[in-house]
Amino acid sequence: MAANYDVLIIGSGAAGGMAAWVLARAGARCLMLDAGPLMDYDKQRVMKAVCDLPYRGFGRPGRFPHITQASEFDANLWADEKQNPYTYEPQDPYYWVRIRAVGGRTLRWGRASWRLSDYEFKCGDHDGFGDNWPLSYADVAPYYDRVEPMFHVTGRNEGLPQLPDGKLIPDNSRDPQSVQRFIDACTRKGIPTTKSRRAMGTLASSANLLLPQALDSGNLTLTPNAVVREITVDPGTGLADGALFVDRRSRREYHARASIVVLGASTLESTRILLNSKSRLHPNGLGNSSGVLGHYLFDQFYVKNVVVAVVPEARGGKGSRGLMGGGGYIPRFRNLKSKEKNFLRGYACDFGGGFTPAAKYFPLYGGELLRELEDVADAGFSLTTMGESLPRFEHQVRIHPDLKDEWGMPALHITQKYTDNEYKMAKDSMETAAQLCQDARFQVIATHAQMAPPGESIHELGTCRMGSNPKTSVLNRWNQSHDVKNLFVVDGGSFVSGGVQNPTLTILALSMRAGEYIVARRRAGEL
Length: 527
What we know:
By secondary structure, the protein is an alpha/beta fold. 23% of the residues lie in helices and 20% in strands. The strands form 4 sheets. Strands 1, 2, 7, 8, 9, 10 and 18 form a 7-stranded mixed β-sheet that branches. Strands 12-13-14-11-17 form a 5-stranded antiparallel β-sheet, with helices on one face. Strands 3-16-15 form a 3-stranded mixed β-sheet, covered by helices on one side. A hairpin with a 6-residue loop joins β8 (226-233) and β9. It is globular and about 75 Å long.
């Protein structure tokens, strides 16, 4: 590619989309590369009956062995694991869930939009484990203030230090009786609850809310189907000068040149690109003089349906709208003022009701089972746990010595497993949730503390962490490489800790913050 751009942006999801929104509108000539296609919703989205699908909606066996969210209805969105392989230790599976399409995973995110607090940004000071971020909540709060209105986040401000208030569209909806009973049970035990905070913008995706305005500026060139092989470096200056990429369809190789490179391809993909970007000046991967790149992988663990209950008054078809439906959120409440439990950090729970519990919860068969399911129709109430995983150096990704993807890019080997701290937390969440349901006079029919495999939450974080010390981190407080001043990583790879909150809102805020830093440094002639 002959053109030399001001900024090369890799990835078009929350991180890359926000970077483009800031930089292109500020006048920087930007090129965006995305490994997937640009979706044409009018041509590619159709309605079909299940009976018309070859696999009746379940999808071709073996295509998505680790993507539990995928089905035949949306198979065109998810990254085919045969084309995009990776490995892990056989005894410690990892579920890497990817979308390769313009807009990234914002095309299918759950839109939960929580702020981090200084319990996360200053976690090392609070409980002595791990490292603080090189910034505080006060540094990020102004960007949260701007992102929330852009994405039309709804919810309630409760004045909780562990869940900072936001610029929210107030959710003043009334709670059904069953939900109110559960909230009352929480209140009696001193456990906080609130409404869910959820982005409600038009599809609330990068493809709808960020990229159109960036493109309208006339300063963004979007190139889909561009699979990035590596970031290139000027041998004279040691600075990044662009990226080599392969056209996904033709397999032709190109070199895109730019004065600044911004990586927002998602946590593991950005780190894979950096680890594959080896040169004489960067023999261990680009920006990896510390040796930390690829380490400290973590996410939030999920215990799906940690407790399933039945609201007795809703049996027999009596689950009216005034009694059933609705839901809410329990923010983290453990280990806030002191270490009260035998584990570090804490967990949150989503709760809600108004569904029919699955047949597997009833030890019945035939007509007796059918009668029981009819009786409990719309009478179900359940909770799902989201717990904090501790960042550990030994949880890492590295380049596999032999395995490559369909385009010849060396693949990742991923090492992460849950430890005793997470197991204790999951057990406590199960016991607490069951007691709350009993206190609300619900009939508990199932409990378990089995965490979904690491990665399944789609909240993978770390591996390219920020920090004040270049010897123990990859990025500074502005998401800027310590080693290569014109290289920025703006996705979840930069996280030092993650709390229990869904990370997308924070990724958006940090990318906006980094983008405006780049604009200011360019105007000052420093980039």
